[in-house]
Amino acid sequence: MSGTIKIKLVRSIICTPEKHRRVVKGLGLRKLNQVVERPDTPGFRGMVKKVPHLLELVD
C-alpha cells in the first residue's frame, strides 16, 4: 500500500446506525459527494470496509 486513497460519500447517513455515522465522520466526510484524501493505511481501509454501502473509492 502506498500513497493516499480518495474517498467519496455517495449515500446519505440519515437513518444509518450511530456507529456508521461515527465512521463517516471519522473519515472527515460531512456532505454528500464530498471527496477526501486519506493515507492508504490498514486503519483507513478498515473504516472504508465498515460502510462500503455509503462510500466509493475514487481514482
List keywords for this structure.
59 residues; alpha+beta; Ribosomal Protein L30, Chain: A; 3-stranded antiparallel sheet; 31% helix
Describe the structure in your own words.
With 59 residues, the chain is an alpha+beta fold. The chain has a single domain (4-58), classed as 2-Layer Sandwich (Ribosomal Protein L30, Chain: A), CATH 3.30.1390. Helices cover 31% and strands 25% of the residues. The protein has helices at 18-26, 42-50, and strands at residues 4-9, 35-39, 55-58. A three-stranded antiparallel beta sheet has the order 2-1-3, with no helix packed on it. The radius of gyration is 11 Å and the shape is globular. The mean pLDDT is 96.
Give a short overview.
The protein has 59 residues and is α+β, with helices and mostly antiparallel strands.
What is the domain tally?
A: 1
Main structural class: alpha+beta
Low-confidence sequence ranges: none
Give the beta-strand count: 3
In spatial order, strands of the major sheet run 2-1-3
Strand content: 25-35%
CA distance, first residue to last residue: 15 Å
The third-level CATH topology is Ribosomal Protein L30, Chain: A
Shape: globular
Helical amount:
25-40%
